[in-house]
Design goal:
Elements: H1 2-60, E1 65-69, E2 84-88, E3 91-98, E4 107-110, E5 115-118, E6 127-135, E7 141-149, E8 156-157, E9 159-162, E10 168-169, E11 175-179, H2 186-191, E12 193-197, E13 204-209, E14 212-216, E15 226-232, E16 237-239, E17 242-244, E18 247-254, E19 258-263, E20 268-273, E21 276-282, E22 295-298, E23 301-309, E24 325-334, E25 341-345, E26 363-366, H3 377-383, E27 390-394, H4 414-419
Parallel strand pairs: 8-17, 10-18, 19-27, 25-26
Antiparallel strand pairs: 1-2, 2-5, 3-6, 4-5, 6-7, 9-11, 11-14, 12-15, 13-14, 15-18, 16-17, 19-20, 20-21, 22-27, 23-24, 24-25
Region (Disordered): 33-62
Domain L,D-TPase catalytic: 258-394
Organism: Streptomyces albipurpureus
């Protein structure tokens, strides 16, 4: 009896335990099943909710895509073409560009509001900021900001050129460009320079040194023609790490053909225009000990009055002072860098002109002090001459002037001139 009770008791306990275990399995299974079902419902619901949020966000975001150049943080940017703002799928509504200190940079919208660019060349070595706003077709706005720094003077070069834009010059005027830094890649730089004439004359550049290149045709420019100089040097690497910044077009006109020939032996100058003699003028050229250069020289500067001090060109006395110092030389026109001029002379006797060569190398014409008498030969010649006119000197005992001493490349033959081209 006792044994049976214990057996029954154990059996009940076993059934209870088994039931509990089964219940546990069912509970766990049920929880797993419920969680799975609920998880599935929750995930779907969450996905739907997120999709709705994304869809709503997409509907609220402007489709306008703004692009700013140069890229944010760029350095050594061009001062000509680098800055530009464009927009796709929208229209620019506001572009603000400022330099250091907040100074506004003027610009213009183009292409119906699809692009913007500055109106003028930027400054070198300057940081600029650009803030842009655009709208899409639905009127939703988009914003973009960027800043960049332009190329520094130390990393760029420029060319100072003559003649000036819009000027009228004589038939001997070359295009002369002097760079502020030595050019290592002459071929690349010359490829960025174009000089052409309406006359159809072939124009070739000649490098005198690493910083100077002149352009001219074989013969003098044709009178009445127009010459165009195009500088496309922006971004051109002239030397390692040094790029050009110029992008410019210059035009000038060739006037009448005036060539004046100075005969040192006969002490006369014959002035011709378009091949016809218009006047013969008595002159006084360089003395035997200080003769005038021979050769073709081009008038490069004009001064109604100027000072001439011998000390500046190496003519000094025992005390180191200039052998001459005339503060009011009338009607002076430069023919060479080294100091050769053709000018009025009021200190010499009237009988000197046409009879004696007495100067330190300049060509003198009779004139009056004050440069106010238009009837004097010096005044007449000055008033009728323009930059670029040719003065030829012959029969002097001195050598021919060097082609790079002034704008005097005509003293080099065409074959040698072309040999100095890097094109």
């Amino acid at each position: 009896m006792e044994k049976r009770v214990m057996t029954d008791s154990r059996r009940r306990k076993g059934l209870i335990a088994a039931s509990a275990m089964m219940s546990g399995v069912l509970v766990l299974s049920a929880c797993s099943s419920d969680a799975g079902d609920k998880g599935g419902d929750s995930s779907d619901s969450s996905k739907k909710s997120q999709a709705q949020v994304d869809e709503a966000a997409a509907k609220e975001t402007s489709k306008a895509k703004i692009a700013i150049l140069p890229k944010n943080g760029a350095t050594n940017a061009s001062i000509n073409n680098a800055a530009k703002v464009t927009v796709a799928e929208g229209t620019l509504t506001q572009v603000t560009m400022t330099s250091e200190g907040g100074k506004a940079v003027k610009g213009t919208l183009a292409e119906g509001g699809k692009s913007w660019a500055p109106d003028a060349q930027l400054e070198r070595s300057t940081t600029y900021k650009i803030a842009v706003t655009a709208k899409d077709a639905k009127g939703l706005t988009a914003h973009e900001n960027a800043s960049f720094t332009t190329v520094a003077p130390g990393n760029s070069f420029i060319g100072n050129f003559t003649p000036e834009d819009g000027s009228t010059v004589g038939v001997g005027m070359p295009v002369s460009i002097n760079f502020n830094k030595a050019i290592a890649d002459r071929k690349a730089v010359q490829a960025g320079i174009t000089v052409s004439s309406t006359s159809g004359q072939e124009v070739v550049g000649h490098w005198f040194n690493s910083q100077r290149i002149d352009f001219r045709p074989d013969q003098y420019w044709q009178e009445g023609s127009t010459v165009t100089l195009k500088l496309a040097l922006d971004g051109v690497e002239g030397a390692p790490g040094v790029v050009g910044v110029q992008q410019k077009t210059v035009t000038f006109k060739i006037g009448r053909n005036q060539v004046s020939t100075v005969d040192v032996k006969t002490k006369t100058m014959t002035v011709t225009q378009d091949g016809k003699t218009v006047r013969e003028i008595p002159i006084s050229a360089g003395a035997p000990t200080t003769p005038t250069y021979n050769g073709q020289m081009v008038i490069s500067e004009k001064f109604k009055e100027t000072r001439m001090d011998g000390a500046t060109v190496g003519f000094t006395d025992a005390d180191g002072k200039g052998e001459y110092d005339i503060t009011d030389v009338p009607h002076a026109m430069r023919l060479s860098t080294s100091g050769t001029f053709i000018h009025g002379n009021y200190w010499g006797a009237d009988g000197v002109f046409g009879n004696s060569n007495t100067s330190h190398g300049c060509i003198g014409l009779n004139d009056k002090q004050g440069a106010d008498d238009p009837k004097q030969p010096g005044a007449w010649f000055y008033d009728g001459s323009i930059i670029g006119d040719v003065v030829i000197v012959k029969n002097s005992k001195d050598k021919t002037i060097k082609p790079d001493n002034g704008l005097n490349g005509w003293n080099m033959n065409w074959a040698d001139w072309k040999a100095g081209s890097a094109a």
